[in-house]
Specification:
- By secondary structure, the chain is α+β, with helices and mostly antiparallel strands.
- Among the domains are: 123 residues, no CATH class; 88 residues, Penicillin binding protein transpeptidase fold, CATH 1.10.3810; 103 residues, 3-Layer(aba) Sandwich (Beta-lactamase).
- It has a five-stranded mixed β-sheet with strand order 2-1-5-11-12. Strands 7-6-16-15-14 form a five-stranded antiparallel β-sheet, sandwiched between helices. The chain has a two-stranded parallel sheet with strand order 3-4.
- Helix 15 packs antiparallel against helix 23, helix 17 crosses helix 20 and helix 19 crosses helix 20.
- The longest helix is centred in the middle third of the chain and has 21 residues.
- About 3% of the residues have low confidence.
Amino acid sequence: MRTWTGSFIILLLLPIFVILVFATSSEIQKVQGFHEVLDENLQIKEVHLPQTSYIKAGNGQVISEIHQPVNRVYLSSDNISAFLKDLFITAEDRHFYDHAGFDIAAIGRALAINIQSDDIEQGASTITQQLARNVFLNHEQSYNRKLSEILYAYELERKFSKKEILELYINAIYFQNGAYGIEAASRLYFQKRTEELSKSQLAFLAAIPNNPSFYDPVKHFGRTKKRQERLIDQLKEEKLLSKENAETIKSESISLQMKQRIDLYPDYVTYVEAELRELISKKEGYHKKLSFADDQKKAELNAQLDERIASLMGQGIIIETALNPALQEKAKSSLEKRLPYKDVEGAAAVIDNASHEIAAIAGGKNYKKYDFNRAFQAYRQPGSAIKPLLVYAPYIERTNASLQDQVDAGTFCKDGYCPQNYGGARYGMVSLERAFIHSYNTTAVRLLDSIGIEIGFKDLSQFGFKMVTKKDHVLSAAVGGFSYGMTPLELTSAYSVFANEGYYRPARTIRKVTNLEGELLYSWDDPFVQIWSSKTTNKLRQLMAKTVQSGTARKASLPNGYAGGKTGTTNGYKDYWFIGLTGQYTAGVWVGKDNPGTLASIQSQAPQLLIWQDIMSE
């Protein structure tokens, strides 16, 4: 009874609506008033359909497809074949070019059937109504929704041409299995662009949207094929296909070639997405606002930033990165090979010296997307790997010391702090070079004390270590004693200063962000900062080369070209580090346990050095 009443009301309302829309010239003012009401309540200026976004490697290869919220590749009307347009118009709305968004005759027929069955069996939706439902409404079966659909459809017809409406419709409709629009469907089911499909394949895809779950070609291929043949027969009946052509199209064999979503290099992509957030935050002013906000305001700003990023992703963007797939594979495979121990993890980062771009990131063994990424999320004590940055470069910069200058490696105590050398060994006066390549702790602490703790940290602060605080400004920092420490990526990025004559710029994965038409949206413009002179960094390069040749990093040696770096081991053998550089790359490797524990049993194997060597060898 309720359905009959609703149908009766619609029968009464529709003529009134039609009269309002198509009023005579004497009622023009009333029609304009009606249009003004529509414009005020249904503000349709532009229709933006969410599209797929992409992340690309340095060689242009797509490494990640981001469907937020849907998988859609927009296709312009000029790239949609007349055959496909005929298919949809014939199947869904034969009076498409004649109506104003709704078909009165079809609605009347549908109402009669619905009243007879006391249910909503037929909707009589035009292509424009279906577009309105897909873009502005939902798929609820109710008369209230149907009335809203008609109003939206009428407004769409006022604002857009038939060509534009059909284009939007073919891009908006759902083709099951996550594909929206004909181009995404073509790539999903056949791994081809729409323009490459045969008429038989086009008709097969056109069969799906009428009832996507019922005509799911993966689960119900036979149903889809039968509907495809019905669509071809309809074109034949409308004299849009000859009998011979129709039979030829129907007889063509259809074979699905399902495409898997591209989602490669999860370690790297996870960081790219985190860096994108940082890039947008800085470019759009969120970063500055967050730095002055209280906790409640920070939560609000972060929510706004999340919405902004989701909106951009939905518009369809291309994130071009510096990923070197070969180096990425090397880093990943080496972690698996060199760390066969169940509870021992590792991370690595590789930076191109010339471009200051991150070429590879390994976040852990068997890393899965959005897992804890140790390369940029694990803050660990750096051990002696901090010495070149906090001690030796600041000391040489201010004293112009020679590598053969004698320094004291003897016992040191100050304010109750008495550092020990490895194994408790004691030394006297040694050269600066020897103290560095054998990593004497007493010398490092004494050098930092001689120039002043704040001087060392003044230089260190320019590298932007996020978790280094005022509490860390103590002598024990000279040998890696920090409250939180730093990440492998942070430490590797800082070491790139030694490959660039004392100039530093943060290493980035993202080269630029564009829309799908290639227009630039965002890019980094970090300035170069000179932290030390080239004379100082050249001396550090010599010290690091000696460390690889005859010091604590001998297992990292390479057969050709320059190789230099610094090892680091924390108290209790909980962390093993090696950060080093060649002529082309700076790479950092960390080995440890997620819950810090001793690694003494594998110390002699020096896996951090072997991983670095694997990555950097040709």
